[in-house]
């Protein structure tokens, strides 16, 4: 059973773990435009490396609780001084820090420490050359490890990601949507242009607090960072679809557009040229899991409107065209009262002609689906 998910790094975390028990061959197509949080600093120092944060997160979701994965899940304290954290990182690289000591001796530990050391050497060199510091406060050791693996592999993303997955004991199930180094630019309905995914990944970014403005659209860009870490020389870009994505979709028993960051994680992948054709040519069920609650990206949208955006995004990346049902066959949606605070309503069914709508109960008042029940429902489409 081959399921292919289009998702972000966190929106389907619990579902990914539930599916691992039922559909172990599930693959996750995830974009590489993340430039928020600590991933931003990685991209500033190493412009050739895409946004790795979501890839790292999904690999660690799929890893068991082995010592290497525990080490990769570690985050540096946000309350400590840089000098203290530099000492801590050196202790990890030398294998003296307790979490590093817990990793069993052998070739895997040797490679893990080598990747961390490679990152450390090259980040000092890059920081000196660019005049850009690399703060460790709040940093993900998993990001550092994954970056180190990519650097050890000559900057090649795919082998570096595969080796990272192997190190942390995760199945190599994450497929980058594109291997290029891209960012997203968002146009808001009030005319604002927000450059970078960081606006939507930061906690309560000023532009989006109490957001009451719809997103008009997103587009791909490349840019450089200036010495203050701000975008400069912003240029239009056309992303290239990773050939692995074509192969995965061609062999899929079901294609799932998962809940999560709707524009940043889902629509951004669907609009990559060639993706829509892959979906249209597949005979597998094409299933959208509707977001149950609002977030800044989905203000003012209904589930039906989001399904329409999914269809049109796929159609825009297809050199030919098919009926709506060639791009989306089922919409799974919550059955709670649309009058509840922050619940996304279904909306106009005339936007969903030819698309089957099935309802699912929500797990709790927080508005989450029951991951076990949702996993069973998805598996039922292909057995």
From TrEMBL:
InterPro entries: CofD (IPR002882), CofD-like_dom_sf (IPR038136). Pfam families: CofD. One of its GO terms (molecular function) is LPPG:FO 2-phospho-L-lactate transferase activity. Gene3D superfamilies: CofD-like domains. This is Gluconeogenesis factor.
């Amino acid at each position: 059973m081959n399921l292919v998910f289009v998702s972000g790094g966190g929106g389907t975390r619990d579902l990914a773990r539930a599916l691992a028990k039922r559909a172990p061959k599930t693959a996750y197509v995830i974009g590489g435009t993340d430039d928020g949080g600590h991933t931003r600093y990685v991209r500033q120092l190493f412009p050739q490396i895409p946004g790795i944060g979501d890839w790292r997160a999904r690999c660690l979701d799929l890893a068991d609780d082995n010592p290497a994965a525990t080490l990769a899940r570690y985050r540096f304290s946000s309350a400590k001084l840089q000098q203290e954290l530099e000492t801590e990182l050196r202790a990890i690289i030398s294998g003296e820090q307790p979490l590093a000591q817990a990793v069993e001796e052998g070739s895997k530990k040797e490679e893990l420490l080598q990747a961390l050391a490679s990152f450390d050497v090259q980040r000092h060199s890059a920081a000196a050359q660019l005049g850009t510091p690399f703060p460790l406060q709040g940093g993900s050791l998993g990001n550092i490890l994954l970056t180190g693996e990519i650097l050890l592999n000559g900057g090649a993303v795919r082998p570096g990601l595969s080796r990272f997955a192997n190190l942390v004991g995760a199945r190599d199930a994450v497929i980058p949507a594109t291997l290029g180094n891209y960012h997203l630019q968002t146009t808001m309905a009030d005319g604002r242009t927000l450059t970078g995914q960081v606006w939507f990944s930061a906690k309560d970014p000023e532009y989006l607090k109490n957001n009451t403005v719809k997103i008009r659209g997103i587009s791909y860009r490349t840019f450089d960072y200036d010495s203050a870490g701000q975008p400069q020389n912003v240029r239009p870009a056309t992303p290239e679809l990773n050939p692995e994505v074509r192969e995965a979709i061609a062999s899929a028993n079901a294609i799932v557009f998962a809940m999560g960051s709707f524009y940043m994680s889902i629509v951004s992948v669907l609009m990559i040229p060639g993706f829509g054709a892959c979906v249209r040519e597949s005979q597998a069920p094409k299933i959208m899991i509707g977001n149950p609650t609002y977030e800044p990206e989905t203000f003012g949208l209904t589930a039906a409107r989001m399904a329409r955006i999914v269809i049109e995004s796929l159609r825009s990346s297809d050199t030919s065209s098919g009926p709506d049902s060639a791009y989306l066959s089922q919409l799974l949606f919550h059955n709670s009262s649309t009058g509840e605070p922050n619940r996304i309503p279904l909306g106009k069914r005339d936007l969903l002609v030819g698309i089957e709508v099935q309802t699912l109960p929500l797990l709790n008042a927080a508005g989450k689906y029951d991951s076990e029940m949702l996993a069973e429902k998805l598996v039922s489409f292909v057995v």
